[in-house]
Design goal:
A six-stranded antiparallel beta barrel has the order 1-2-3-4-5-6. It has one domain. It is of the alpha+beta class. The protein is 26% helix and 44% strand. It has one helix at 78-105, and strands at residues 4-11, 16-21, 26-37, 40-47, 59-66, 69-73. 12% of the residues are buried.
Length: 106
């Protein structure tokens, strides 16, 4: 089941991405990270929420060209989703480790 995200709006000051699905539903996400892997750009996003519930979970979407437009889309392959998710987790761990080392040096 594919849910292509038709429209994307990025508020660069807040780091918020608004995605509109093919049914017209708009969901707000916090932008966490982006990377290119095997010629495809992937995005790690956290659904925006007023509480901390689910703050430790993120969504991975990939950039695809559909009808000549660049759009974010869900990843249909469980293997691809797991693989890219693991790469993001490693990147997050490296960033957290970098911050920890930085704090110790000061």
């Amino acid at each position: 089941m594919s849910e292509d995200m038709n429209n994307t709006f990025l508020d660069e000051e807040e780091g918020i991405i608004e995605l509109e699905d093919e049914d017209g539903n708009v969901t707000r996400f916090e932008f966490i990270d982006a990377m290119e892997y095997n010629g495809t750009t992937y995005y790690a996003l956290v659904p925006e929420s007023d509480d901390d519930e689910g703050a430790d979970q993120f969504v991975v979407l990939k950039e695809q060209e559909i009808n000549g437009e660049s759009m974010l889309a869900t990843i249909d392959s469980d293997e691809e989703y797991a693989s890219i998710g693991e790469i993001f987790l490693q990147r997050f761990a490296e960033l957290a480790g970098y911050d920890d080392e930085d704090g110790e040096e000061e």
